């Protein structure tokens, strides 16, 4: 399983990439694989406020429905509209085309795991 080293991770299996005050959020390959075939994604809307650690949407798969948690607090500035017609992109490209939403954050993301820490966390969940 690939865990890109340039990203930050949460214990709830979201990843975050920060650039110029904007955080791009997605779910990890581990989460996508655990969920199985993703068939529907609900993201927050542009303009919505999200809070770090709080539910910001959900992912539905053939196995279950799982909440998406925002790793940052701020305003949603973009959502990945391509997922509306192709939610399975999260399974095939969790770190590229399968990103979920972008947030202009109000404070620097905290308590993120490094790729190494996240890998250790998921080794215990296999």
Automatic annotation (TrEMBL):
One of its GO terms (biological process) is protein lipoylation. Keywords: Lipoyl. PROSITE patterns: BIOTINYL_LIPOYL, LIPOYL. Binds 1 lipoyl cofactor covalently. CDD domains: GCS_H. The keyword Calcium does not apply. Belongs to the GcvH family. The glycine cleavage system is composed of four proteins: P, T, L and H. This is Glycine cleavage system H protein. It comes from Nocardiopsis eucommiae.
